[in-house]
């Protein structure tokens, strides 16, 4: 079986996806032994730190996988890849293991997307990297030219010892909608999106931009070094999963507070090249024009002058002829989606985003506390309270009312008990309040519910008013909120009635009403097209 060992300067893996990465969902299924250090460390995103001088009950601590001494055969670790794909090679890293490193390793694989978890003696294991020598405290890069498909891999070390990180590189088997009319994130790693080139990735690599979720800290985003020259800019080129039309862009700066970019812009083009030569990064016919009509294959995100981003989402519809074949696997849902049902010839999709004050700003306010005061919206006044045991976030939202003085409107607090939606639900109406804003503050579990109940979430769907004095469906947005977040709908904003996703949830509603709950300020409109709510699994 052929393989090639690469120098550390080789950039072969820079255009591949780390299929085994914990950020994609890669995980250790079983292991022969992990007496000194647990095998989950193998898949961590960050490089292995030195734990020199630190000891636990079993001995010296290491960030990696380390087994007992004197194994008469070999040790093994079975890993389920975060995404099925074709494997191009491996980075086997023994950093900080010196004198206790694994002397030799081999790798086996199984490709069974619908299979139950394999055991070490499963007859389906096929060797894809033969037994090779590795050394102490160093990285070892290997490529395999035959590019086998894999869902599971087994890392073997002979006879025992330690390995810090194990990275399996390759290309994702894409999961994209079968229907060309369905919206999806065309840059997402699970769909087959790929980061082609990056101007700089000093603190965080560009391929993090298309990972699922919002990550856990700045270390799993893209961050460039500080620039010291006027007019500087940094950029990243992303190959889309399929040729298609782009409709929505989401740029997420989660965890980047004092180092987010000052500004940015996105260009796009169409190219038949499968890989992008570095010399073409600045000299292409990138465009910002006719985005809704043109079909694109690549996007170029430019940030000014430098900084960090967490994720990039490029939502669009693939060209009907853009993909030769579509996998049998179901579409990937990161959270949940709102899909305009096809009662008419066309349908539209609004992705559901995590609720943040910035994203919700044009529809209302988010009422929440912040552990990190630097993360509060600009202009928020924060003072210590309760003899220094609390922080007060002042006036996150103001109550407003435009009722005439003679109407007798009064402000009060009501309570809604909302039952959860299960399975598929259809949205057929939206409502608005033209004279007052309206606040909903989650109150947690209902009476009699046990402490073991799962955490609650609720869905927030909003739209601005259109020129015809009806909901502007192009402005329809959806958010998932936690019970640590309250919301305030601006006066006149169309919104869906409160929709709870998990279990029953109580809300305190603060609003100005006429009398004891007159419906004079509650306008309800039936939608021409029913809206299907696709809830999380």
From TrEMBL:
CDD domains: cupin_UAH. PANTHER family: ALLANTOICASE (PTHR12045), INACTIVE ALLANTOICASE-RELATED (PTHR12045:SF3). InterPro entries: Allantoicase, Allantoicase_dom, Galactose-bd-like_sf, RmlC_Cupin_sf, UAH_cupin, Ureidogly_lyase, Ureidoglycolate_lyase_dom_sf. Residues 25-172, 192-318 form the Allantoicase domain. The keyword Lyase applies. It comes from the Eukaryota. It catalyses: (S)-ureidoglycolate = urea + glyoxylate. GO terms for molecular function: allantoicase activity; ureidoglycolate hydrolase activity; ureidoglycolate lyase activity. Belongs to the allantoicase family. GO terms for biological process: allantoin catabolic process; purine nucleobase metabolic process. The keyword Lyase applies. This is Allantoicase domain-containing protein. Pfam families: Allantoicase, Ureidogly_lyase. Keywords: Lyase, Purine metabolism. Homodimer.
């Amino acid at each position: 079986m052929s393989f090639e060992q690469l120098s550390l300067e080789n950039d072969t893996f820079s255009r591949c996806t780390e299929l085994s990465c914990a950020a994609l969902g890669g995980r250790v299924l079983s292991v022969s032994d992990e007496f000194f250090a647990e095998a989950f460390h193998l898949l961590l995103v960050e490089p292995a730190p030195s734990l020199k001088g630190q000891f636990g009950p079993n001995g010296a601590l290491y960030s990696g996988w380390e087994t007992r001494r004197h194994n008469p055969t070999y040790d093994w670790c079975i890993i389920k890849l975060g995404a099925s794909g074709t494997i191009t090679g491996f980075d086997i890293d023994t950093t900080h293991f010196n004198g206790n490193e694994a002397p030799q390793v081999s790798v086996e694989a199984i490709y069974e997307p619908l299979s139950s978890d394999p055991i070490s003696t499963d007859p389906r294991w096929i060797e894809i990297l033969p037994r090779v020598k590795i050394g102490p405290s160093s990285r070892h890069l290997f490529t395999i030219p035959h590019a086998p498909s894999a869902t599971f891999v087994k890392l073997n070390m002979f006879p025992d010892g330690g390995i810090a990180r194990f990275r399996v590189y390759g290309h994702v088997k894409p999961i994209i909608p079968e229907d060309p009319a369905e919206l999806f994130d065309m840059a997402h790693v699970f769909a087959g999106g790929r980061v082609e080139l990056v101007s700089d990735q000093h603190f965080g690599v560009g391929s993090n931009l298309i990972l699922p979720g919002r990550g856990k800290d700045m270390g799993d985003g893209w961050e460039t070094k500080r620039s010291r020259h006027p007019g500087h800019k940094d950029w990243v080129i992303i190959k889309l999963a399929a040729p298609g039309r782009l409709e929505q862009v989401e740029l997420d700066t989660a965890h980047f507070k004092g180092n987010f970019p000052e500004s940015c812009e996105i260009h796009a083009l169409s190219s038949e090249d499968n890989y992008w030569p570095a010399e073409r990064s600045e000299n292409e016919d990138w465009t910002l024009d006719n985005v809704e009509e043109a079909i694109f294959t690549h996007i170029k995100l430019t940030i000014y002058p430098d900084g960090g981003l967490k994720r990039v989402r490029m939502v669009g519809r693939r060209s009907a002829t853009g993909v030769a074949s579509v996998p049998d696997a179901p579409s990937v849902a990161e959270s949940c989606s709102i899909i305009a049902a096809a009662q008419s010839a066309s349908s539209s999709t609004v992705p559901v985003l995590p609720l943040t004050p910035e994203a919700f700003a044009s529809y209302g306010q988010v009422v929440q506390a912040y552990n990190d005061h630097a993360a509060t919206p600009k202009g928020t006044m924060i003072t210590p309270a309760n003899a220094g045991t609390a922080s007060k976030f002042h006036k996150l939202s103001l109550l407003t009312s435009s009722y005439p003085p003679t109407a007798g409107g009064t402000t009060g607090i009501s309570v809604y008990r909302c039952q959860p939606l299960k399975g598929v639900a259809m949205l057929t109406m939206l409502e608005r309040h033209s004279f007052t804003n309206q606040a909903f503050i989650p109150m947690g579990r209902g009476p009699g519910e046990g402490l073991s109940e799962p955490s609650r979430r609720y869905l927030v769907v909003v739209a601005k008013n259109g020129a015809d004095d009806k909901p502007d469906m192009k402005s329809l947005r959806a958010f998932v909120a936690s019970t640590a977040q309250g919301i305030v709908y601006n006066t006149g904003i169309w919104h869906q009635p409160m929709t709870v996703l998990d279990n029953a949830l109580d809300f305190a509603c603060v609003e100005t009403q006429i009398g004891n709950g007159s419906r004079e300020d509650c306008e309800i409109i039936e939608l021409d097209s029913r809206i299907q709510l696709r809830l999380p699994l």
